[in-house]
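We close this part of the discussion by returning to an individual protein. Part of our work consisted of pairing the sequence of a single chain with a tokenised description of its backbone. What the numbers capture is local backbone geometry rather than side-chain detail. The amino acid sequence and the backbone structure tokens for this protein are reproduced below.
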Amino acid sequence: MELEQLLKLINTVSDSKLTEFKYETESVCIKMGKESSVKVVAADAQTTAPAAVQGAVITAQETKAAIEASEEPDVQKGKVVTSPLVGTFYAAPSEDADPYVKVGDTVKKGQVLAIVEAMKLMNEIESEYDGTVEEILVENAQGVEYGQPLFRIR
């Protein structure tokens, strides 16, 4: 994760009403909490930065959204393909076309799985793995965030 992305993430969480936030990949683990410190642990380095934030009230809707966002798919049952950018997920090249892949389809590394539209640009999401599509984790035309799991492939 780039320093600029990390700073953006810290500011976003600091400005939100969340009291805790956790983001984890194979090489990075970020845990943030209000009235505490932000810790970034990478495979090869460790960085700590203070989070100057104040307590906040969280609504039920925000709590539900935070819980849904924190529920990660069971990566032990397969490999997860994540969104490389923020945008809108599309399972097919057009409204009347068949989806690129369906659950149960066999895919090859580099095969197009979906499209994420960002700023009117269509970005193809390619499989990082050979295998079978076990689960499609988002709905068609749903907004997705950077790093959000899209597919589980076994």
